[in-house]
Amino acid sequence: MDKKENLLSKINTPEDLRKLDPEDLEQVSSELRQFIIDVVCNNPGHFGASLGVVELTVALHYVFNTPYDKIIWDVGHQAYGHKILTGRREVFSTNRKYKGISGFPKMSESEYDAFGTGHSSTSISAALGMAVAASAKGETRHVVAVIGDGAMTAGQAFEGLNNAGIGKSDILVILNDNNIAIDPNVGALKEYLLDITTSKSYNRFKDRVWKILGIFGKLGPNARTLAAQLEAGAKSTILDKSNLFEGLNFRYFGPIDGHDVLHLTRVLQDLKRIPGPKLLHCLTVKGKGFKQAEEDQTTFHAPGKFDKTTGVIIKTAVADTPLTYQEVFGKTILELAEQNEKITGITPAMPTGCSLNIMMKEIPERTFDVGIAEQHAVTFSAGLASQGMIPFCNIYSSFIQRAYDQIIHDVALQNLHVVFCIDRGGLVGADGATHHGFFDMAFMRSIPNMVVSAPMDEIELRNLMYTAQLEKNNFPFSIRYPRGRGKFTDWKKPFLEIEIGKARQISEGTELAVLSIGHPGTDVSSVVSKLSKENISVAHYDMRFVTPIDNNVLHSVFKRFKYVITVEDGVLKGGFGSAVIEFMSDNGFNSEVRRLGIPDYFVEQGTQEELTRECGYDAEGIEIAIREVLVKKMN
């Protein structure tokens, strides 16, 4: 085959890949890497992680008989190369776009996507379930979990390893060790893996072990068993401490170069013949093959649009653009922490994303990145609060779902002063269904002792944060805010305490009332202002709190208005609008309430504007709802 011919363009399925000669795989890897660069530079998405597993992706699909054999990608944003090799090359330009393909593996999208992995650290548990099922059905399929980008730091990964190690399931875990999630990895596991990868004596030994295994393998299964026993005994002797994975009854192999595609294929072929739970430790570089992504791995995790030649990120913001809510949070917590020495900041692996890195730079001794471990983050915060500290635990809305039990038992039940700053509330955009922040208001409002609040703008965010840290408010307090920019450039106002459970009236009106919670109130305000020019009189209330809700305002509203509209950027079922209807029912009112928010289905990917329009609570949807209610009122 002419090596100048483009090979990737001929690969529509892994079966096409497997028809190539092994020496072609380096060219395929090079073309795949360049294809990802060419597309993602113009259609923003997760970049560095997928570049780092190009060779591993090619090797896995070359060696294993997918989709019969199962490959689970964890975290899911490292699966771009996988998608391109499995029939989605021609539609990859729609990645993360409205009505396009998902940015993560998705079972309903392709038979090659063995398991949906939008969050992290679930692959080993899922792989074990698949392997046990295969055994029960008498199937001989291989199951591979590729876990990386910091996903091994989460507790569920160890739960899966612990359970898999006691059985004989034929499962292969590939640890994609690039020493970084979005920000650099933290914790003892990071240091442990570094010890393994830098042990010269161990690395010399493991090279010999591979050769011995190859020789013994040719002599038959009994000889291979003997070689494996020799290997296991020698490993624990050479390493200063026993191998963690071997201690969990996983056969450990590695570390090996995760960018040597030919060696990877040979190693994977060998591992296919070894039964039971196995772990292959691959060393990779996040952003491999794109200089700027290798040098600035955090920025190029998801850089937005960039020049593929120079690596310069294309920015569209202008000087007077408002800051994001995240940036306002980051600057405000530093300001508060400088005034109150009890304040600490905690985040599960998202210091840059949530802007806690601002405080981390200035007050590192009171700022903690605990790794991808939301449950630990919450209970760690509870421990701090039990000793008089005031932890601000910042977790994305879709991630805080993973710590619901800890919120209830470790914080709320004990009535501890933990401030939950719930980032990315509502529709987040291109990351889609796995990352939208639908549910936090609904599930937080059901928990006793919990204050549930949402600011309409950045100034309210600052004041809610200030209010939450006051000594007198020593109970669980949640503040949720969206992904994206606010409305003010002069947001840094003097702090003002907000009375808990107190709404504010934005505009007077006589025809109907609109009750909003959080950022959508800005759209309500603009619509009400527009309608006032047509002499349409709408009362607008920024409720600010879902729990405790302002009973005085609600009494007043239901006494005055027959028609009420609620607006929220959360799930309608059990959310803010439901709280309003519950109040109406409990207090004997009978107004007609129309709720705008996120319907009862998983909304897919798209821009925030496209998705709020789909859900019907953008400015246009709010205006339509008001006009429809007014028509009904006239009739």
Secondary structure blueprint with pairings:
Layout: H1 14-17, H2 25-40, H3 48-51, H4 54-63, E1 70-74, H5 80-88, H6 123-136, E2 143-148, H7 155-164, E3 171-177, H8 188-198, H9 200-219, H10 221-238, H11 244-247, E4 251-257, H12 261-272, E5 278-283, H13 291-295, H14 325-339, E6 343-347, H15 357-362, E7 367-369, H16 374-386, E8 390-396, H17 397-400, H18 404-412, E9 419-425, H19 440-444, E10 451-453, H20 458-468, E11 477-482, E12 504-507, E13 512-516, H21 520-532, E14 538-542, E15 545-547, H22 551-560, E16 563-571, H23 576-586, E17 592-598, H24 608-615, H25 619-634
Parallel strand pairs: 1-2, 2-3, 3-5, 4-5, 6-7, 6-8, 8-9, 9-11, 10-11, 13-14, 13-16, 16-17
Antiparallel strand pairs: 10-15, 12-14
What does the model show?
- With 635 residues, this protein is α/β, with parallel strands linked by helices.
- The chain folds into four domains: 8-199 and 255-291, Thiamin diphosphate (ThDP)-binding fold, Pyr/PP domains (Rossmann fold, 3-Layer(aba) Sandwich); 200-238; 325-482, Rossmann fold (3-Layer(aba) Sandwich), CATH 3.40.50.970; 504-634, 3-Layer(aba) Sandwich (Rossmann fold).
- Helices cover 41% and strands 15% of the residues.
- The chain has 25 helices and 17 strands.
- The protein has a seven-stranded mixed beta sheet, with helices on both faces. Strands 1-2-3-5-4 form a five-stranded parallel beta sheet, with helices on both faces.
- Helix 2 packs across helix 4 and helix 21 packs across helix 25.
- The longest helix is centred in the first third of the chain and has 20 residues, at 200-219.
- The protein is globular, with a radius of gyration of 27 Å.
- The chain starts with 13 loop residues before the first helix and ends with a helix.
- The relative contact order is 0.08.
